[in-house]
Structure formats: C-alpha cells, structure tokens
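Step 1: inspect the first sequence and its tokens.
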Amino acid sequence: MATLLTGANGWVPSYIMRRLVQRGERVISFDLMPPDEMLRDFLDDCFSSVTFVQGDVTNQQQMLDIARRAGVTRIIHAAAITPRVDREREEPQRIIDVNLGGTINALEVARQLPDFERFVYICSIAAIGGGHDTDVVDEETPSRAANLYGITKHTSERIALRYKELFGLDVVSMRPASVYGPMERITAGSTQGAIC
C-alpha cells in the first residue's frame, strides 16, 4: 500500500508528505520539480522514506505506470499551477492542462488501480472566488471564481465528485484557505505570493 502525492514537492503538499511519512505511510512524490535543499531540510529524517519521481500530471500513462509499480492504493492530488495574471496571459493552455487535465488524469489512474481506496483532491478557497454579498460563504455558495486558478480548481472539484458518483470512487475534497508559513517558495507550479 502506498500513497501517490502529486505536486508533493510544493508548499502545501510538502506538509502532507511529511505528516504521512511520520505516520509510517509509504509516499510516492510525483512532481515536475526535483526535491530541493529547502524540501530536504524541511523533511529532515523523513526525506529518505519518500520515493521521489519526476513526472508530469499531464502524462496519464507515466502516472499510471508509476502507481502500478508502487502498489498505490491512495492518491492525494495537489499538483496545480497557481499563476499571477501575467502567467495566465502567457500560458493559459498549460495552466488548464495541468490544473484541469491533470485532475482528470489522476482520477483515470485511480479508476484503473486494483484495490484502490481513496482519492483526496486538494482544492482551494479560490474555487469559491470573492465578492459574495452574503455573510456566510460555505460549500453550497455558488462559485464566483474569476481567474484560471480558481476556475480550474472549482471545475476539478466538481469533476472529482462526479467521478465519485459515476464510478463509486471514494473521493473527498478539501479547500485550504489563508495558507502561510515556511516552505513558500517559487516552484515550477507557483509564483511566490501568487494571488489565488
């Protein structure tokens, strides 16, 4: 049994990775970015317990091959590009391919794995957007996402939940909000201080 964590070397997923290893779980980091010195220091003793694989979530076959070889039974999908507006203008197709297409690829991989247990989608509060005129904003509040990150997060969350209905996958989604702290850095998927 192993957990495939996409985008694992990024800011928020690195905390998930460390916690899983501390609980004694086997973790496969599937990320475009190789582990850097900051991640090594952050993981400390946990670093040697992680299997690091350089991969792209837009390559479904690569993800499936890795998952099958590792005996993956759980996927935590956190890979995403969190761009500023200039990057949205420069490469909108890449952002959509990674954020939305990568989610579909990860779900398709989950469907093909024997003994698959759970798919966790790491969404974002950006999926709900801003400018709501109500005092309470919750999971039932309609999305007002306005940038590609928020739009693809909202859409990916809905697709993941639809896969749950269609195929009986155990799918859960979470929306972190106001994330801050150590491990924030410029990576292949983010721009430091990006407005999500």
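Step 2: inspect the second sequence and its tokens, then contrast the two.
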Amino acid sequence: MHRDGLVMAELGGLRDEAQTRDYLIENLRHWDEHQFGLWIVYELEGAVPVGRALLRHLMVGGTEEVETGYALYEPFWGRGLASEILRSCLAHGFTDLGLPSIVAVTSPSNFASQHVLRKGGLACERTFEHHGAAALLFRINRSEFQSGRPE
C-alpha cells in the first residue's frame, strides 16, 4: 500500500522500505501497549486485502486522542466500504473500548474522505498541522454516536 501512488496521494506520499518498516514497528508497538491499532481489511470471504483500518493513539497539539482511519486500494473505492469500516471502528471504540470521543484526520483536499466522515457523524473541528502539512481534525463523541446524530 505504501508504494501505491493512488492510495498514498492523500496519506503523505509514497513510503520507502525503511519508512514502511518503521510504520510497522510503531503499529506493532501500539498493539502491544493498547491491544488495538491497525487492521488489514478483507471483503467477506475474500483472500485479497482491500485496505486497512485503524484505531490508535495520536497526539494533537499536546493532547492525546484516539484516531480512526481507513485506506482502500483503488479498485475498492466508491463501494461504501470506507463508510462500513468507519462505522465498525467507531462502534469498537465506543462500545468495546469505552472511549469518550474519537477523532479522524484528513487533508483539506481529500473531499471523498471528508464526505465519509461527515456521513459517519463526525464534525470538522479545526485545521491543524500534522506531519508538517495542513490537516483537518474531525471528531465525534460517544453520545453523538449512540444517538445516531451529532449534538
């Protein structure tokens, strides 16, 4: 996935082998510490990965948050899978992990992701700097998720 230009265009650009190894090590460490993190996503009864999903800790302006996210390979875009992944991550975060809120980060130019996040009940909170670039921070609280609508 890190070498797929279409997928990585909105995720910080292509990553080389060393960057991918560091990403893997960081995500395995997160699993060891928190018992959740990044998942590889398959279609039901599928043998080929369609993308990835995540719930992981993220520092935003000195505050520790839990972020949700997803990335899909291009053949699986436009099929509603991102919305399904988002709903599953939010449900796991709020129901199983008892999180009070969950954030998502996307680039200002990623209108497709912004649409999925808004449709999932997240509201754009602000612009901030993320890995040296402008990013949008979206958020949903547990009560908003449980009621099925933003507060």
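Step 3: confirm your contrast with the notes below.
Strands lie at 38-42, 49-60, 63-72, 101-106, 123-130, 133-141. Residues 121 and 145 are 7 Å apart (CA to CA).
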